[in-house]
Write a structure and sequence with these properties.
By secondary structure, the chain is an alpha+beta fold. The chain is built from 7 helices and 9 strands; from the N terminus they run αββααβαβαβαβββαβ. The protein is globular and about 50 Å long.
Length: 241
């Protein structure tokens, strides 16, 4: 193949990638419905609607982290990163911001388990739990947010008798691979932004402050579409988080 054809093929491939990126980003820059007003989520604070914690007052945001309590590293790191960002916010911002942790492992993460786990963080975080991983509401809710997750079984490296004893003791050691990000939702149930955990606590705090100012200035106006929302663009999925 001639060098000229190789160059043309390379330029064509680059153009296709650029178009895909531009299309994906432009499609994700609009806030979208994520938490239907009719959906009640069981939590460590009772049943929650999208606007329960804001008590119907405009200018509030919920920041949601997906994960599970048996996570060895990524989930605690995510909560710790949000905690450090939280500590940089002023009292007014904190009063209008509601941290949440959505378990993707409801089989093991009961509400009491979530309460104990989240009490280790200096953060007023609410645990969310839908009754079953097979519950269609969990799948629908995570799809609306752009959260991807799947159960990964442990390697079959133990003898059968050990596996049976482990199962009888209720000590299943499967993992959950899932998206890693902070999902920002307004009191109307719209996804306003998706913040990567690669950001520093200072960057997270600055972005949350900006988003709070945006919803306080125009919580229900048509100009809401001007808020920059990355909504599911390039959210990484961690393995064995």
């Amino acid at each position: 193949m001639s060098p000229r054809k190789l160059i043309l093929m390379g330029l064509s491939a680059f153009a296709l990638v650029a178009i895909a990126l531009i299309t994906g980003l432009s499609a994700s820059h609009q806030p979208r419905d994520a938490w239907p007003t009719t959906l009640e989520l069981p939590s460590t604070r009772g049943l929650l609607h999208a606007d329960t914690l804001s008590r119907g007052e405009a200018g509030h945001l919920s920041v949601l982290i997906p994960g599970f309590t048996h996570c060895p590293d990524i989930c605690p790191l995510s909560l710790a990163r949000l905690q450090m960002a939280w500590q940089r916010l002023d009292e007014t911002s904190r009063a209008h911001l509601h941290p949440m942790f959505l378990t993707l492992d409801p089989a093991r993460d009961t509400l009491p388990v979530l309460s104990r786990y989240l009490s280790a963080f200096s953060l007023p975080v609410t645990g969310l739990r839908l009754p079953s991983q097979d519950d269609t509401r969990l799948e629908e809710f995570t799809q609306r947010l752009g959260i991807q997750f799947q159960r990964r079984e442990p390697e079959q490296s133990h003898p059968p008798e050990h596996a049976q004893a482990q199962a009888s003791a209720g000590e299943a050691d499967y993992m959950i691979d899932h998206s890693v990000a902070i999902f920002v939702i307004d009191e109307q149930g719209r996804l306003r932004d998706t913040l990567p955990l690669s950001q520093t606590p200072a960057q997270l705090a600055d972005r949350l402050t900006f988003l709070l100012q945006s919803v306080a200035a125009a919580p229900s106006s048509d100009s809401v579409a001007t808020v920059n929302t990355s909504a599911n663009a390039n959210v990484p999925v961690t393995g064995g988080a």
